Amino acid sequence: MKWDEFFVTGDPLIYGADVSIGLTVIGILFYLTYFKKWQWLWREWLTTVDHKKLGIMYIASAVLMLFRGGVDALLMRVQLATPDSKFLDAQHYNEIFTTHGTIMIIFMAMPFLIGLINVVIPLQIGARDVAFPYLNAVSFWTFFIGAMLFNISFVIGGSPSAGWTSYMPLAGNELSPGPGQNYYLLGLQIAGIGTLLTGINFLVTILKMRAPGMTLFKMPMFTWSALITMIIIVFAFPILTVALALMTFDRLFGAHFFTLQGAGMDMLWANLFWLWGHPEVYIVVLPAFGMFSEIISTFSRKVLFGYKAMVWAMVIIAGYSFLVWVHHFFTMGQGELVNSVFSITTMIIGIPTGIKIFNWLFTMYKGKISFTTPMLWSLGFIVNFVIGGVTGVMLAMAAADYQYHNTYFLVAHFHYVLIAGTVFSCFAGLIFWYPKMFGYKLNEAIGKWVFWVFNIGFNVCFIPQFILGLDGMPRRVYTYSAASGWGGLNMLSTVGGFLMGIAFLILAYNFYYSFRYSERENTGDSWGLGRTLEWATTSAVPPHYNFAVTPTVTAMDPLIQMKRDKQDVKPKIEDIKKIHMPDNSGVPFFMASFFFVAGFGLVFEWYWMGIVGLIGVFITLIIRSFDKNEGYYVSEEEIKETERLTV
Amino acid sequence: MANPQDSLSREHGGIPWKHVIGYILSIVLTALALWVTFETGFSTRTILIIIFIFAFLQAALQLLMFMHMTESSEKNNTLTGKTQTGNILFAAFIAIVIVAGSVWVMGAGHAKHDHHKMEMDHDMKMDGDMKMDHGDHK
């Protein structure tokens, strides 16, 4: 392989990206060296097993990926703004919509939600950390390395270009030669390990590590939604793992699972992909529902309406989300009986979600509502998400879907579900729990600008796409003729897209502004309205052991109960006992680095490199297996000092 | 973390024979499946039946050896017991949905008359085909 095949060449946009990546890396290396931060980085972040820090790293990576995926989206919108545009060529456009979709779902939405779950859930159930803190670090690093492996594809070797669904035979060796599609397979496979481990970890954490007195039906709604999400992850992700492995065999080792030759079944890929893909939709939307439930209840100063209905709605979704997958390919030709059955199951799954919409409305009914930014995002969610839901029921009718499918109507629909559901919830949750992570709030005035600019931009971007879809504009085309008459609405949509981009920049400015100027919090209950245990810590940012004394739960919304009982969250000095905590470890970081070596080798089919990487992974597994480290104890004196308790 | 002393340290003593035996038997079953496929002269149908039997045996083996199938009765803990039972039932439900659902969807309507599918049916009938593909391994 020659160097000009190894690096992507010939496009000024790519050269620009090369330069900016180079400058960023040099800048970071300079900063770390000049301010002597290497040790700090290693000790505090790269080796940490603390759920709060891992959560923050997840969220930071997700925001970075939101930027990357957002730039992809804006490049697409520039290309489509005018008919017969020459801004991007067909291949480049295909690569960009593929990476946009993959990054936004796998490397933005999921890690953002998993990050918030990491920060909040152990606090919310009164635990000191997750059940398996070391495994949690492995989860993060495999996700991060998978994301990085996928992301370098656009400067080294070339990006995948077969869509985020990677349908066969398009994604096969004949039609997608070169390393691009391999990046997709290996990047997702490595990141998938992390997701599956997170599923197991939080499932056990929520089932086994709740504070005494917190029965299943006293759990906060976000914890419930996380529990259900983890169940779906544990059962859905193995399907993706197997499907990716089979396609990797097809591409690298000449197998014929999904190929046209050798009796392969190309459509089986679509079938397996959506058997994972539909539950995945619920994986990224259920935690969002949980967060909105917490925020709406908190800022309405009311108990969540219909708690049990909410829980059962989610339990039903956990099983039912596996029964609707065929609606993603009604037009594949599986006949009217199959289509009718999946049409009906799809319409039925709208019911539990409908129940929840009414629950949120009734929670607000007669509540004393504070219009803080997290609450604004929640209100925006309800309105916009209903548009996504209603158009979803339209698409659920198999016969009508023959008209809608593969048009911008579908594109607009799923953006209304995923942006209004997942992205709004990520912003709402991030702002809501920001003081829990950093000890100060994001500026509310700037936050309201972010909300309004984003919300207006979002609607200006996607409402025209519903109309374009009904006018017959197909998705995944890199250009269209002026005679089609789609030019005006596309230009409008692009304007909306850029408004969302501007909102992101204002949000980034808010991170900086609030870091400089926000008032520092000095109580654990930053909003003053907290209902659940994460607000019952003694300081704004909890110490690494979270609670000096494990709280006892007597009622739902335990902090509200404590406020009623005039009970102080400060622990009594005689209750302080030494606390057992896990040690930091650098092994997960190295394990993931070896995964990167293995993945990179397999992408280019350099098998010696793949084997070296995998041997490295096994060595780290062996090191961990013979590690007798049982953690350490935080002494009573240290706890008293941290909690500022004096006799 | 919750109970650092009891559960963790108790299981860490000595060689975990159960896991070692389970691991070796899993590898043996996988190797046998490969051998039957590549090295025997059975018809495709017979090979499929044999490797399916190996697959089910291995699944059962892993559930018993690695997956703590019998744990609920040991510990006599109602939540653990219920979780285990619910887990197994749910897993069985999902497995049936994935396998039976895929067979149904891929075999229904005009997906059934799909060109590649016909090729496969054809191969299945002339059951010497698969052996011919791998003739060079003999």
Automatic annotation (TrEMBL), chain A:
- EC numbers: 1.10.3.-
Keyword terms of this UniProt record: Cell membrane, Copper, Electron transport, Heme, Hydrogen ion transport, Ion transport, Iron, Membrane, Metal-binding, Oxidoreductase, Respiratory chain, Transmembrane, Transmembrane helix, Transport
| Cofactor binding remark | Binds a copper B center. Heme A3.
Q: Which Gene3D superfamilies match?
A: 1.10.287.70, Cytochrome c oxidase-like, subunit I domain
Cited InterPro entries: Cyt_c_oxase-like_su1_dom (IPR023616), Cyt_c_oxase-like_su1_sf (IPR036927), Cyt_C_Oxase_1 (IPR000883), Cyt_c_Oxase_su1_BS (IPR023615), QoxB (IPR014233)
Any single biological process term in GO: electron transport coupled proton transport
Is Membrane among the key words of this record? yes
GO MF annotation: an example: heme binding
Query: How does the UniProt record describe the way this protein sits in the membrane?
Result: Multi-pass membrane protein
In terms of Pfam families, this protein maps to: COX1
CDD domains registered for this protein in UniProt: Ubiquinol_Oxidase_I
* GO cellular component assignments: plasma membrane; respiratory chain complex
Cellular compartment(s): Cell membrane
Q: Where is the Cytochrome oxidase subunit I profile domain?
A: 34-554
Q: Which cofactor does it need?
A: Cu cation; ferriheme a
Query: What sections of the protein cross the membrane?
Result: 12-34, 55-76, 96-121, 133-156, 183-204, 224-247, 267-289, 309-330, 342-362, 374-400, 412-434, 446-468, 488-512, 581-600, 606-623
The function of this protein is: Catalyzes quinol oxidation with the concomitant reduction of oxygen to water.
The UniProt similarity line reads:
Belongs to the heme-copper respiratory oxidase family.
Write down the NCBIfam families for this protein, in alphabetical order.
QoxB
Record-given protein name: Quinol oxidase subunit 1
Automatic annotation (TrEMBL), chain B:
Cell location: Cell membrane
The main location class comes to: membrane
Annotated membrane topology? Multi-pass membrane protein
Q: Which reaction does it catalyse?
A: 2 a quinol + O2 = 2 a quinone + 2 H2O
Q: Which GO terms describe its molecular function?
A: cytochrome bo3 ubiquinol oxidase activity; oxidoreductase activity, acting on diphenols and related substances as donors, oxygen as acceptor; proton transmembrane transporter activity
Q: Does the keyword Lipid metabolism apply?
A: no
Q: Which UniProt keywords apply?
A: Cell membrane, Membrane, Oxidoreductase, Transmembrane, Transmembrane helix
Residues crossing the lipid bilayer are: 20-38, 47-68, 88-108
EC assignment: 1.10.3.-
Keyword Iron tagged: no
InterPro entries of this UniProt entry? Cyt_c_oxidase_su4_prok, Cytochrome_c_oxidase_bac_sub4, QoxD
Can you cite a GO biological process for this protein? ATP synthesis coupled electron transport
Q: Name one Pfam family in it.
A: COX4_pro
Please tell me which top-level EC class this enzyme sits in: oxidoreductase
The UniProt entry's GO CC annotations, sorted and at most eight, read: cytochrome o ubiquinol oxidase complex; plasma membrane
> Hey, which family's this protein in?
Belongs to the cytochrome c oxidase bacterial subunit 4 family.
Q: What does this protein do?
A: Catalyzes quinol oxidation with the concomitant reduction of oxygen to water.
Protein name per Swiss-Prot or TrEMBL? Quinol oxidase subunit 4
Organism from which the protein derives: Fictibacillus enclensis
